[in-house]
Amino acid sequence: MSSLVVGTNVDALNSLNLLNQTDSALSQVESELSSGKAIQTAENGPAAYVIGQYLTLQQNGETQAIQNANEGVSVLQIANGALQQIGGLLQQMYTLAESSANAGTMNSATLAANNAQYSALMGQINQIANTTTYGQQQLLTGAYSNETFQVGVYNTDTIELSITAASTGAPALNIANTNVGSATYASQAMASLAVAITNVNGVEAQVGATQDELTAMIQNLTVANQNVTAAYSSIIDVNMAQATTQFTTDQILMQSGTAMLAQAQTNPTLVLKLLS
Fold it and tell me: Quick one: which of 15, 142, 207, 215 is 20 to 30 A from 231 by CA?
């Protein structure tokens, strides 16, 4: 249609429509550059937005699972350290029992000295067993039973652990009634201590195996979280170089579009030359 009409300025309307489109595109790319995200709402891409939400859930779940597993490792490190101390004390007690069992060199004074030290070591074991805690949770009294570590996104991603009581009267040790006050009692104590040492070693092995399992889980979760983060970024994050280029293009189009709209709005004035 000719621009030499007064009632309807079609050129101006076309220019205005194109300018509005450019303005909308410029606003979008400005939003992307300011937020760093190409997909901010479902409006920007419904499918991509939904996938992004799932990936965010997985990211958050794996991040928390890594933290949970690390906390679990801390619990087991505390328990394992205490069990090592108890194992060392049992070894000292066994040495004292073996010394007292050597009846040919013992007298009442040396037996009494050995027995006093033996009792003191037994007290240390009980003190360790009763005071080893993670926060307010006791670890070596038998109270730490069927405890669950949540180490994954899903509620089935768990590791369970029970730590046997490690006091002298607990079934695993069962040495509370032993003493080394005589060669006979010392010989009996040696047999009990040998079983106790074996049992404590078994508990340490169980705790250590669980700790290894948690450490491996942390490594796996860390790699998985990195991959999920990369996938999320490829879908949601904006390509800054591409967006910057588009921003520059849209700015130029805005300026030229504004100029062309102004020009189109003046076209009807050409009719005045015809009238003159």
Answer: 215
